[in-house]
Amino acid sequence: MSGKRVIVVTGSYKGIGFEIVRLLSELYGDRATVFMTARDPTRAQSSLDNLRAKGLNNVELAQLDISSKESVTKLKELIETKYNGVINGLVNNAAVSLTGVEPWGKMALETVKNNYYGHILVSEALNPLIAPGGIIVNVIGQMSRLGQVSQHYQKILWNAPNVETVSAVMDEFVQAAQHGKHQQAGFANNALATSKLGVHAVARVHAKQLYAKKISVINMCPGWCKTDMAGWDRAPMTAAEGADTVVWLETMNQADQFANTGGFFQKRRPISCLRVHMIEKRVIVVTGSYKGIGFEIVRLLSEFYRDRATVFMTARDPTRAQSSLDNLRAKGLNNVELCQLDITNKDSLVKFKTIIETEHNGVIHSLINNAAMAYKRNAPDPFSRQAKNNYFGYLLVSDILFPIMARGGIVINVASMCGRLSQVSQQFQNQLQHASSVYDVTDVMNKFVSAAQEGKQKEAGFSNSAYGMSKLGIIAAGRVHAEQLREKEISVVNMCPGWCKSDMAGWERPPKTAEEGADTVVWLETMDHTSQMKRSGGFFQERKDYKW
């Protein structure tokens, strides 16, 4: 019995697991004992009888609940007692996909407990029994891609030195999910995928830990197969087809197995799921961006990132922006999306947020607040309207889009030197400079609006520039947001593009081009995260830090 190969397949009395057992049993014959495992062996008896009827007598049925330490320990003791304490092949297939469990946070907890921590329990108990030259195959799927989480977590998981590091991330997911804030925290809205991501990351750790024993650890995706878990109607593959790559990996020679340790396979081919998705496609939103400085920001970021980012060009009226989009398309910049967005309209913002949630994993990595209006001196519109549109529009954007900012993201406010603090009285300077909340800033802005409506803004301690006052409010609120978002490692930076040729500023007198005005935004957006955080709360022009 000691010369026989011992193979354990978790979760294997039906579906892909059953086919793995059947195919391995057929291939090895009396040269191996293949363990079919099930939480409830009585439900698996008919599956065993099915194999016995085919003359496959090398299959042994054992009880195994991967989420139960007692159950896992009993299987370990069985291997130690009857099979000299040696496993040659371990196929981790067991998993649950829960539906109808409410609240969602409870489902996340149970899914991670079963799939991720169950995998850890099995690894702690059975990995020490794997023979030198043995193999571990994890059936996880492409849903385990690294790109489903924020760059902050991507870096942690990709470089995880030990299992504890990965477990800490899984715990953070569960905790955030229980408060309904997992997406804001940087996780996907898919508990099964997140649990499989954890298994994938841990497998990389195990591959390194077991390297000295020449034990291979390989992840694989079976594809979309007809099973109880995936459904029977739409899935294009049979369970036997899904099992094929597992069997191919398990039965190849040991040298080839070890050459592929840490790898990821589908349909007998290596796939770079982790590497392709290691840095999630960046989502960049630029408000007010179909012309002028906003357009140049979109163009420059689109050229910089290419297929590594989706850059949103936004406009109140997308029909007026179509020619701008066509301009970029003609240059081969196909990573720009045009969307309707009016920063003063809550419904418009909510619709835009829904697009991000449904089509881009509910995550924004960079938000560039460029939208603003500035009336000509002889404009008939009320003097205070600029402050209302620019400042309160910024607050609407903040309220609706900040919750879906990725951890490690950046907010850049295109403000102006017109928003200098010295334009208001000392009383208001103190209030704005030491504002502890947005309400402190809004209080000043409301007082300005009230005074302006009576034509008494100068007497009340404000400047005679509605545009300047609106930008002052945005800079002050940006400083508050920088402190509030620091815990999520989101940087908030204010900047001045300078006096640039545009419809707003005019075309004759301004000395700078719109592209030159956009330069500091692009510089801030593309610098490394550590540098962004160091500048959070600051005010910049021409790539230099300026006193507000």
List the helices and strands and how they pair.
Blueprint: E1 5-9, H1 15-28, E2 32-38, H2 41-53, E3 59-63, H3 69-82, E4 87-92, H4 104-126, E5 130-139, H5 151-158, H6 163-178, H7 182-185, H8 191-209, E6 216-220, H9 239-251, H10 254-259, E7 264-266, E8 269-270, H11 273-276, E9 282-286, H12 292-305, E10 309-315, H13 318-330, E11 336-340, H14 346-359, E12 364-369, H15 385-401, E13 405-414, H16 426-433, H17 438-453, H18 466-484, E14 491-495, H19 514-526, H20 529-535, E15 539-541, E16 544-545
Parallel strand pairs: 1-2, 1-4, 2-3, 4-5, 5-6, 6-7, 9-10, 9-12, 10-11, 12-13, 13-14, 14-15
Antiparallel strand pairs: 7-8, 15-16
Helix pairs in contact: 1-9, 3-4, 4-6, 4-8, 6-8, 12-19, 14-15, 15-18, 17-18
Characterise the protein shown here.
The structure is a single chain. This protein has 548 residues and is α/β, with parallel strands linked by helices. The chain has 2 domains: 205 residues, Rossmann fold; 211 residues, NAD(P)-binding Rossmann-like Domain (Rossmann fold, 3-Layer(aba) Sandwich), CATH 3.40.50.720. The protein is 47% helix and 16% strand. It has 20 helices and 16 strands. An 8-stranded mixed sheet has the order 3-2-1-4-5-6-7-8, with helices on both faces. An 8-stranded mixed sheet has the order 11-10-9-12-13-14-15-16, with helices on both faces. α12 links the parallel β9 and β10. The radius of gyration is 29 Å and the shape is elongated.
